[in-house]
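pipeline: protein-struct stage 2 | run 1193 | Trypsin-like peptidase domain-containing protein
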Amino acid sequence: MFENNNQNEELTHIESNKPEAVNKEEMQRRDKPKKPFKGKGFLSTVSAGIIGSVLTLTVLPQTDYYQNLAQPGIEQSAGESGQAETASDSEITPTTVSTGTGSDVANVVEDASESIVGIVNYQQQNNRSTGISQDAQAGTGSGVLFKKEGDSAYIITNNHVIEGASTIEVSLYDGGKTEAELIGADPLTDLAVLKIDGKYADNLLEVGDSSALRAGEQVIAIGNPLGLDLSRTVTQGIVSAVDRTISVDTSAGESQLNVIQTDAAINPGNSGGALLNSKGELIGINSLKIANSGVEGLGFAIPSKDFMPIVNEIIETGKVERPYIGIGMTNLADVPRNYLGDLPEEVETGVIVASIDGTSAAAEAGIEEGDVITELNGQPVKSPADLRRLLYADLKVGDQIELTVFRGDEEKTISLTLTSNAMVN
């Protein structure tokens, strides 16, 4: 649980093991003598905290990673215990079962509840007394059965619900349990897809089009708040707003998530559960909430127009392909000025290159540790989230970009061609 110092609001979610930082090869320095970058020692410390996944400068648009937000503190509604552009342009296509006319909430809930599952995240833990490693429950969440193909059925959930799991158990509507296979996950959009035997999927939720939503429409949330003892809890509310953008910190770096805001109650354990429209169609995956003792009715869900392209790509390829630069970075505003050497005083915002993948486009183009990136294709870069937003708004693998970079007091323009994160091990 994290606390926003400005708002005194909290941010929580399932505890996940973040990957360790990746040590990068030392880059070739310029022949021209230059003053040593005073921030190198500082960046070495910073770089140690930068997650290896950041090197894949992944997409825009999660929930207990979210701390020190510009907006009020946000919590991921993950379990208790222990708009993104993609290569896939798949349209939202309904899968089976249509669940009612919207006139009878009880009928909608009765049909939809059979498609809501519980997710239990088991992680390897060492028994101190015996020295033996064994699986222990690390958290719980929710998931939605939405597709059946051949002998397999697919479940959508949040990445933070299953992150770090050695084993994933699915609790079914009839009380049965089965082990799930992780098909793929995407931390920056907080989405994951699981696969189970198709014999457990008699009912599937139909996916609706969230782009048709308007503020004031009725919605229903179904999930497993506070663990599986309260499984398939139903809450009702309205769409408070559409197309909200929330800045968040994830295990793969800072990101921005496009969300539906609702006043339907969403609590820890609801993560990965369904947000339904009045017809019983799946139009959102519950993921976030404002966590503050004085705040109520501020929950957030990832809209179907955003999650379906990601989910389809994960099912097809097991991953989400995105353009790759090859740097680890930190916000210029977070580095004390005395560590910035000869950087001009007027350069107040940007991102500092804290580490470089020695085989990446950044290394080939001559970007160096300590460089400060202030623009991408002429657009200002004020933070890591800005860089990702610009990178994924209109660009794709193979595009050439121009970065405006300060190296000490010298301003440079560096061109490079974006490669694919799929090439990174």
